[in-house]
Write a structure and sequence with these properties.
This protein has 2 helices and 4 strands, in the order ααββββ. It is of the alpha+beta class. It folds into 2 domains: about 30 residues; about 55 residues. The protein has a 4-stranded antiparallel beta sheet with strand order 1-2-3-4, covered by helices on one side.
Length: about 100
């Protein structure tokens, strides 16, 4: 094989590999909260200031809805689910109702 052909083949191979890595990074980043969105720590603080708040059980992010779901408990033991828009921090009603809807 001529040196130019080997160089061309290596260049194409490395370029294809770099493209695959960029594509994989974009897939991962697309599943994360939007850049410039509200900080998770701000949403946690907002939740902790709610009247009767006791403790957070879990926080999850839905890339398909673009929102965080926070599950927490009230001082009386009631479980509460609240969704926050990841871009603005505005509370939204949960998608799932009390009866699994």
């Amino acid at each position: 094989m001529k040196p130019v052909t080997v160089f061309a083949a290596l260049t194409l191979l490395l370029a294809g590999n770099a493209y695959a890595q960029d594509d994989a990074e974009q897939r991962v980043l697309s599943k994360l909260p939007p850049p410039g969105g509200v900080k998770l720590s701000e949403l946690i603080a907002q939740t902790e200031r709610r009247p009767g708040f006791y403790a957070i059980e879990s926080v999850s992010f839905s890339d398909s809805d673009g929102e965080y779901e926070v599950i927490y408990f009230m001082e009386d033991g009631a479980e509460v689910r609240i969704n926050y828009d990841a871009a603005t921090g505005s509370p939204r009603p949960p998608k799932r109702g009390l009866f699994g809807g």
